Amino acid sequence: MSSAGPPGPGTRDLVTLIPGAIRNDPLESATTLQDHYGDVVKFPYHPSIGGSGYLVCHPDDIRTVLQTDQTKFRAHDTRAREDFKVVMGDGLVTSDGDHWLRQTRMITPMFRRHSVERFCRLFVDEARRAVAELEPGDEFELLRECKRIAMRIIGQALFSTDLEAREADVYEALTTLREGFKRRNYAPVAAPLWMPTPENRRIHDAREVLSTVAEELIAERRDDPEAEDDLLALLLTAEDRVTGETMTDEEIRDEVVTFIVAGHTTIAAALTWAWYLLASNPAAHRRLHDSVRDVDLDSPSLETMGELGEATRVVEETMRLYPSVPLIGRETKEPVELGGYTVAEGSTIVISPYLTHRDDRFWHCPGAFDPDRFRDERDPDRHEFAYFPFSAGAHMCTGREFAMLELPLVLSAVVAERRWTFADDTVPDVGPDFSVNLEPDTEIRMRVDEWT
Ligand code: HEM
């Protein structure tokens, strides 16, 4: 084990060496850090938190962080997570310790594959509804359309309402939060969120919009608890099998806001990138169409997924290139060995699906969009931790089964009927923009075409 500690830039190097740091682009900065310094890089963490950050890139070490030594890490002490807490309170994404354990015991069963199978029909219906609203020749903005589909789905799955009446407010609130958090995250010094600056007021107002939507829907349901058979009904009746306790309205509100944020922005981003990649790769687009056009999607179930292998691989490959959550943070609770170095207690650890998914030691031609690489036989020896879009270990994404039914089914239902191409027939120059989730850095205009 080395006593020198991992290599990395000092604060001055960070600014002069790394254009991404100047442009406040964390993914470009992380890529440059790995290129310059290797698999474990020490970097000065955000000035408002202080202490050292470590970028950890090798799948062996990612396994250590997420799985083997996971109890040595706190799940959230990065700056971004603290900000998220203002919005999602003590929901699953932002809590830890005993509260998280109790909530996860109650909530995880709702998201098992067999439990979320009943939403398959919803996924197809909402995709078909989106198709029906667009005539061939119509143009639209891709991310906005994918957000609309994802929002309607999470609204129906949670509350049995498509949030239509509140969609504009929720959309605006989420956009405000995304932009506000991005500015805060990149500012050398950001005012604590309790200070009444104009930016902080906007963030709190946006949080209030989401909380109010959740509180109103919970209150309506408390008046008529038998009304629906959706995730809210399950949250209202969930009992902790260890203590027999149920959740308070505040706890349910935090989980509901968590599901609205985590369950819709991630999906919308992944759908957007999938269509961007398909429209950029007409042969793959055509192949997906051919693979789904004769599949009966009228009563979709887990069995149907067996016929949607191509769509599932397109989704997997999309999330390799553009994982919705491209950076995952942890904090060490005790010294940990990573890559042959000892990392001290209280350090921030950053791992990046975005980086490791594009590492040519583990992926052949990593920049190419090639859904076939997810055929079982193609790369049987690939490192288990070279691919982790949903993370791993105890904090692995709660909604992964939901997502892995929703995304292939929505894609299939749309692609079976329509071709979505770039509005001006040329591939736009699009890069990733990271705040909360990985979205395109520019608008993508699309056109609806018929298959010929
Ligand atoms: C493309 C789709 C999605 C991706 C790529 C994704 C990815 C992730 C990742 C990387 C984490 C962080 C885990 C960690 O800190 O180690 C996470 C956590 C979480 N996700 Fe997702 N997610 C997606 C969709 C969803 C959906 C649809 C829901 C719910 C309806 C959801 C709910 C959650 C929750 C509750 C957590 C917190 C888990 C915990 O800490 O216990 N996600 N997700």
Largest sheet: spatial strand order: 1-2-8-5-3
CATH class of the largest domain: Mainly Alpha
Instruction: Predict the CATH topology of the largest domain.
Output: Cytochrome p450
Mean pLDDT: 90
Bound molecules: protoporphyrin IX containing FE
Characterize the biggest β-sheet: 5 strands, mixed
Estimated helix fraction: 40-55%
Notes on the structure:
With 452 residues, this protein is α+β, with helices and mostly antiparallel strands. It folds into two domains: 133 residues, Uridine Diphospho-n-acetylenolpyruvylglucosamine Reductase, domain 2 (2-Layer Sandwich); 280 residues, Cytochrome P450 (Cytochrome p450, Orthogonal Bundle). Helix 13 packs across helix 16. The longest helix has 32 residues. It is globular and about 60 Å long. It binds protoporphyrin IX containing FE (HEM). Protoporphyrin IX containing FE binds next to helix 13 and helix 18.
Summarize the entry for a quick read.
This protein is α+β, with helices and mostly antiparallel strands and 452 residues long.
Blueprint of the fold:
Layout: H1 11-17, H2 19-22, H3 26-37, E1 40-44, E2 52-56, H4 59-68, E3 73-74, H5 79-88, H6 97-107, H7 113-116, H8 120-132, E4 139-141, H9 142-159, H10 164-186, H11 198-223, H12 231-237, H13 249-280, H14 282-292, H15 302-305, H16 309-321, E5 328-332, E6 336-338, E7 341-343, E8 348-351, H17 353-356, H18 400-417, E9 418-422, E10 432-435, E11 437-440, E12 445-450
Parallel strand pairs: 2-8
Antiparallel strand pairs: 1-2, 3-5, 4-12, 5-8, 6-7, 9-12, 10-11
Helix pairs in contact: 8-9, 8-18, 9-13, 10-11, 11-13, 13-16, 13-18, 14-16, 14-18, 16-18
This protein binds protoporphyrin IX containing FE.
